[in-house]
Amino acid sequence: MENPEVVMIGLGYIGLPTAALIARGGTNVHGVDINQHVVDTVNQGKIHIVEPSLDEAVAAAVKGGFLKAATTPVQANTYLIVVPTPFKSKNEPDISFVKSATEAIIPLLKEGDLYIIESTSPVGTTEKMQDLIFSSRPELKGKIHMAYCPERVLPGNVMYELVNNDRVIGGVDEDSTEKAVAFYSNYVEGELHKTNARTAEMCKLVENSSRDVQIAFANELSLICDKAGINVWELINLANKHPRVNILQPGCGVGGHCIAVDPYFIVSDYPMESKIIGTAREVNNYKSFWCAEKVQNAKLAFELEHGRKPKIAIMGLAFKPNIDDLRESPAKYIAQKILQDANNEDYFVVEPNIEEHKVFKLTPYDAAYDEADVVVFLVAHDEFKKLSFDKEKKILDFCGVFRK
Ligand code: SAJ
Questions:
Q1: What is the mean pLDDT of residues 157-165?
Q2: Is the CB of 154 under 6 A from ligand 1?
Q3: pLDDT of residue 13
Q4: Closest CA to 152 of 210, 103, 99, 102
Q5: CB neighbour list of residue 47: distance below 8 Å, 6 or more residues apart
Q6: For ligand 1, mutation pick of 258, 327, 377 (most atoms within 8 Å of CB)
Q7: DSSP 3-state assignment of 389?
Q8: How confident is the model at residue 243 (pLDDT cuts 50, 70, 90)?
């Protein structure tokens, strides 16, 4: 490809859809990934992740000659950093991928270029990368534009939300913000909100922390109601009739790659101040542990009453309803915990959204429900809601499948 205008570093869940979107508009995009398999797959016009409509977008972009992948960057005008920011040690964010991606493009930068980080990052990361760039290229001071612009797309709806969601765009100075806004306005139909880099970084973290805190409130209520002998689903439904109350739903914990992770980016940098955010993480983690304990107790109670071990159905492994994604899934954690404490009981593990699993032997949901003495609902998949409540069984409904 001659003269790519955009270099996209990181061709994962966000980078690849974004690259395809930009290329679809007729812009030459050079995608970079350290994984050769990813590079080869993309260059064949195929995809290595599951996301509706992404396959067509990538196929069209590659066929049209607008998207090409490689393991190293080349010179362009705009560089997007969309790499993972995992944890270093316990709950401390690791920005080394952002740093190495930045180092790879430092020799390529020239006057007028635009550098954007989209990766979820601790506050101050964009400024740190600015220092890193200027430490080896001081002549670029005041001559390049740098901004932070987080994505906020929902897995499963990425191609729509990338275009239609509002974006928050924060430059290291006003010119940078303007330049980044002009760039995104070519692809995004949602509103583009201008701010500075630190606020944009914090905004992403706060959005997911806010949801985590609200879910923790619901989970805390579920523990209180369990002791008080109150149906938490009915309670929340009634409380939400108040015109200014909107409580979320309790579950078996909080999973996924974002909401259970991003709050730690705040807590690790501001431990003294982020009391509620830190406690919410603890409450949501404890909820999974509590669910596993409840199953253990139900097993023992059944054995005492019936003089035999129960057959147990574990319903759902995904991190939320109606998806096949088991990443950071509390349901998977609980299933592992239950099976690890197993003692000759018969188990049925159910996950209707996946065909097979290398650790769990899967059983169809209706057969598992029919056979089991103890049924543990971990994820409120739509299939489960078709089952009728069987009062002969001990049902542990942690996610409100039978909430009515
Ligand atoms: N959950 C509950 N109760 C609820 C709602 C959710 O227990 O009432 C649980 C789910 O079961 C799941 C977890 O919370 O385990 C997270 O699910 P989710 O649907 O809230 O979020 P994600 O991880 O699929 O996507 C989120 C979204 N962020 C927000 O809603 C603030 C998405 O917009 C972000 O782009 C994404 O994180 C991200 O990448 O940051």
A1: 97
A2: yes
A3: 92
A4: 210
A5: 16, 41, 54, 55, 58
A6: 258
A7: coil
A8: very high
207 lines ligand 1 (CB under 6 A): yes
Beta strands in 184-327 (DSSP E): 192-196, 311-315
pLDDT at 91: 85
Alpha carbon distance 130, 133 (integer Å):
5
Angle 29-33-39 from CA coordinates, rounded to 5°:
80
What is the spatial distance between Cα 367 and Cα 348, in angstroms, rounded to a whole number?
9
Distance 325 CA to ligand 1 centre (A): 12
List, for residues 382-401, the tens digit of each pLDDT value: 999 999 999 999 999 999 99
Closest to 283 measured CA to CA, from 310, 251, 312? 251
> Which atom of ligand 1 is least distant from the CA of 155?
24
pTM over 0.85: yes
Q: Strand order of the sheet with strand 346-350?
A: 346-350, 311-315, 374-377, 394-397
The kind and range of the H/E element at 170 are strand 167-171
Measure 284 CA to ligand 1 centroid, in angstroms.
Answer: 13
Tell me the catalytic residues.
204, 258
Over residues 284-296, mean pLDDT: 97
Joined together, the tokens standing for residue 157 give: 């709806």
